[in-house]
Amino acid sequence: MQHYSMYINGEWVNTHNVLEVDNPATKKIIATVPNGGREEAKTAVDAAHKAFRTWSKTTAYERSEYLKRWFTLIDQNKEEIAKTMTMEQGKPLKEALGEVQYANSFFTWYAEEGKRVYGETIPAAHSDKRLLVQKHPVGVVAAITPWNFPAAMITRKVAPALAAGCTVVVKPAESTPLTALLLAKFAQEAGIPKGVVNVVTGDPKEIGNVWLDDTRVKKITFTGSTEVGKYLMRRAADTVKKVSLELGGHAPFIVMDDADVEKAVEGVIESKFRNAGQTCICTNRIYVQEGIAETFTQEFVKAVSELKVGSGLEEGTDIGPLINDKAVEKVQSHISDAVDKGAKILAGGNALRETNGYYFKPTVLSGVTDEMVCMKEETFGPVAPITTFKTEEEAIERANNSPYGLAAYVFTENLGRAFRVSEDLEYGIVGVNDGTPSVAQAPFGGFKESGLGREGGHYGIEEFLEVKYISIGI
Ligand code: ADP
């Protein structure tokens, strides 16, 4: 079994105790990582704080070169990273490779965007004054990331932070620290100065609390559950840290009567079953207009029945295992609740208990009502509940009736309707005839309780910058 060390101040660090990492496809332990706590969390901030003094003074052009070197090494080693990701997280290898490429696109994009952090001159009301605005890196950034995108949720934060001139301390999820530590290895090989990037594995609460209490940490950037996000935001208030949160979602997928059924089915398959339904922008609720409901449902069920469930390392797998047993139980309980309240199972409906992994069959439910748990809470699994609606207004109202506001999808061939519906949806991301909207150059983030701030695009770097106004008397 392999042991991975954590990366602090340019060194590979170990602790007396270790955490075990399992493969959700086999439930077998595949590696161990250090079980860091208070001490390691603090050492990492010491290193990041010290490194900030010099890193923040490098030019955007120098930082760009480092990011490009890191990009190249990740690109050259993408198969190894993808395989490690599949082993610890479960997603099919082709998806893991796709994630590595998506993750890496943040380096190339921010390597350039860092050069465009412009200031401003503001016209003064007096001839003997000059008013300037400069942008400064916020300082040490703490990034806490989830297991569903073991690489991309790190690079989406770290790339803009580094480009802006910040240094980072990262705590990856307990279930997927290996990908994070591989990324750190390539950061070291890329020659990124010690202390600029630190990855601490171990106890989330202990590490998180040290970072929350430390006044040298100026920003917390988090992707994960709404519950933990709210906790971090509350705790960050004590030292008035900047906070970016990318939390849960409950994405509606609206299919209008005038939709292209083939496109809609393809879109919903992509958005529902990616990562076995374990992404925060995965479709959670499918609203189909009455006139097209029968055709859409038939085609959808047919497409779902062709999806292959299996180990992510096997060729042709579309859906890998869920992350753990708790995830399987949650999916099962959402289905049971729906069935108890009158829903019908059109496909799947059960876990594959006879296998060695946490597998669950892709499931389609019809006759679903808005009162069912799966229509309100994030299932985070391969369950597609279908309900019908009569009018555009009804679809918008029901789609917006949620405390979440991350992603929404609408499929229609009518241009006016595409604009009307996408503008009325209270969501940070809307895919119109598009089930896969995430790209490095566009803003990703949610309305309402789905989060604060944006990652990606020029918005993503602003999150790591302070605005300084300089008034000059001449
Ligand atoms: P999920 O339900 O997807 O695992 P979590 O919000 O529990 O989402 O986890 C996302 C990240 O937040 C993980 O890295 C996890 O270790 C971390 N985390 C969980 N609880 C805390 C906490 N109290 N303080 C800091 N980080 C936490």
TrEMBL record:
The active site is at E246, C280. Pfam families: Aldedh. It comes from Peribacillus simplex. Residues 12-470 form the Aldehyde dehydrogenase domain. InterPro entries: Ald_DH/histidinol_DH, Ald_DH_C, Ald_DH_CS_CYS, Ald_DH_N, Aldehyde_DH_dom, Aldehyde_DH_NAD(P), Aldehyde_DH_Superfamily, Succ_semiAld_DH. Belongs to the aldehyde dehydrogenase family. The keyword RNA-binding does not apply. One of its GO terms (molecular function) is succinate-semialdehyde dehydrogenase (NAD+) activity. The gene is gabD. This is Aldehyde dehydrogenase. Keywords: Oxidoreductase. GO terms for biological process: aldehyde metabolic process; gamma-aminobutyric acid catabolic process. SUPFAM superfamilies: ALDH-like (SSF53720).
